[in-house]
Design goal:
The protein is mostly helical. It has ten helices and no strands.
Length: 232
């Protein structure tokens, strides 16, 4: 339960920031849809989806309890921010920028969490009575690193409607691109099949997230107050 309550706030904020970035980038590209619908906000209540934001993370977290406290799985998603690409001043450039905005935001948040994890370790060395509380706070930052690199790399997978598919679409021949985008209605099913029956391939697709997390933990290791999540 401690791990759950440390990871959940970071997951929620990271998903909300991801969606906010899409809406803000769309506004800068000429599409005010998210702003007009009140979705250009960091208020989590505006971005919560009952299934993707609440039920799915709970089921995955407690359903993976058999894997051990250091290997629990938590994943979810926020309600997608509505955008209208027809409003972009330049459709191709706007769609690519808006699609990558959430990914860039998650990578930036992972870097911020890394800096904070190191800073907390330094502060704990100077204020030893608060080391216990600071250790939990640092652990939350480690969760922040993992969750954000995972969200970034997952969304880069070129399967519609994930962000990576929007980028790939613009590098395909027009006819093939249209057929590729038509897969979006089956996207969730394809991802589910990939995760359940092609776990080796799915692991390869997410290997960059593992590499980034391990590299970040390596940098923060001299300042770690306890073993980081997923490495126990």
């Amino acid at each position: 339960m401690q791990e759950f309550f440390l990871a959940l706030p970071v997951l929620l904020f990271s998903m909300v920031a991801h969606e906010y970035a899409h809406g803000y980038a769309a506004l800068r590209q000429g599409d005010p849809t998210a702003y007009m619908l009140g979705r250009l906000t960091l208020n989590p209540l505006k971005h919560i989806d009952p299934f993707m934001t609440i039920l799915l993370p709970l089921v995955m977290w407690f359903g993976s309890s058999a894997l051990g406290p250091g290997n629990r799985v938590v994943f979810g998603g926020a309600k997608p921010v509505p955008v209208n690409p027809r409003n972009y001043r330049n459709f191709r450039r706007g769609d690519i920028i808006v699609s990558l905005a959430g990914i860039v935001t998650n990578l930036a948040l992972a870097l911020i969490c890394l800096v904070l994890a190191i800073a907390i370790g330094l502060v704990a060395g100077a204020i030893s009575p608060a080391a216990g509380i600071l250790a939990l706070l640092q652990r939350m930052m480690f969760w922040g690193i993992w969750i954000n690199v995972l969200l970034a790399c997952f969304n880069l997978i070129p399967i519609p409607p994930l962000d990576g598919s929007h980028v790939l679409y613009h590098f395909l021949p027009p006819a093939l691109g249209l057929r590729f985008r038509a897969l979006s209605q089956y996207g969730f099913l394809i991802l589910l099949m990939l995760m359940l029956f092609f776990q080796g391939l799915f692991s390869i697709l997410l290997f960059p997230a593992i590499l980034l997390y391990v590299s970040a933990v390596h940098l923060a290791h001299p300042f770690a107050l306890m073993t980081p999540p997923l490495l126990m």
